[in-house]
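1st attempt posting a full record on here, be nice pls
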Amino acid sequence: MELITKVTILSPAYPLRGGIASSTERLAYELQSSGYEVEIYTFSLQYPSFLFPGKTQYSEDIAPKGLRIKVAINSVNPFNWWRVGNEIKKAKPDIVISRFWLPFMGPSLGTILRRIKSNGHSKSIAIVDNIIPHEKRIGDFQLAKYYCNAVDGFVVMSKSVGISLQQFSKNPVSYIPHPIYDNYGEIVSRTAALQKLELPQDQKYLLFFGFIRDYKGLDLLLKAMADQRIQQKNIKLIVAGEYYGDKTKYEKIIVEHNLADRLILKTDFIPNEEVRFYFCAADLVVQPYKTATQSGISQLAYFFEKPMVATRVGGLPEIIDHGKSGYIVDVKVEAIADAIVDYFENDKAAEFTAQVKINKQKFSWANLVKGIKDLARGRS
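the predicted structure (as C-alpha cells):
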C-alpha cells in the first residue's frame, strides 16, 4: 500500500468529551493537514449509564470545525457493529485507526474491524492507550484479545503498554510518545490566568488536573499537603477535575488534616476553553499516580511549559527527565512532599522550565502520523 489517501478513525470524539476525544480530533486535523481525507466514527452509545462514573459523557463545547464526525457506534448492540462495519467496508478506507483504552470496547471495535478488513483492502492500525485496565474486571483479557486479533499494527505511547501487548498479539508495535496537547488555546501569563480564576497573585500553586479516580493518587497528594514543610510555605493545591467515584475518602483526608483553606477545589468537568488557565496559573503540576500507562496531563504540562512531579509508574519516567524537567518519585506521600519542597526551596522554576521548553519539541503530531503510515505500509 504505497498511496494512502483515505483514513477512517473509530474513537470517541465530539459530542463526547474527555482526553481521548480531544486527542482524536487533534490527530484528525493533523492527518487532514497532511493531505488525507478523514472521517471519524464516534459513539452514539459509549457506556451504558450504570457503567459511567461521571456526571455526563457529553461535551458542552461547540463542535470542532472542519471535521467529519459521524455519531454511529453503539458499544452494546451487535447488530449495530455489523451495520457500521459493513458501511465502512464498502467505503474502503486505506487505513482504519481505532482507539483502544478499555476491554469493554473489545467486542464492538473488534467486530467492526473484522467486517471492514473483509474487504481485503483496509489496514487496521490501533492506538492503544491502555491494554490492561487500571481497574481490572473478569473477562478483560479475553475481550482485549478479541480486539487485538483484528489489528494489523499497534501504536503505543508508553513502553510498558508495548510490553503488555506481547501477551495479546505478535503484530508490529511502534512506540511513539503522546504528542503535546496544543489544541486548548495559547499560553497566557500567570497573572492573567490567576485573574481569570479569581485567585490571589501572592501564593504558589500546585495543580492536580483531570478526572479523579483512585489510581490517580489524589489521596497521596492531599496527605503530602499536610507535610509540615509544605504547610510552612505559601503553597495551595488546585484540584481541577470531576470525581469519577466516591469522594468520601478525599473529604475525610481534608477534614483529618485540616486542609480546607489550603485547597482550591474545582471538582466539576473543566471545559476545554478553561483548561489553559489552570495550567498557566500553576507553578508545578503533580501527577501522584499509583498506576499508569502514559498520561495526557504530562503533555498538557509540556505545552503550557510547566515542570512536573510524577510517580515512578508506567510510562511517566519516559516523558519526564528527573531533576531536569521535573521529578520522578516513589509512590509514597513523603517522596511526593520531598519533591514539592525541593522545587520551591531551591528555586528550580527557571531551570526546570527551560528544560521543559526543550523537551516540548520532541512530541509532535507529525511523528504520530508518520508512525501510523509506516505501520500501514508494513514498516515498524
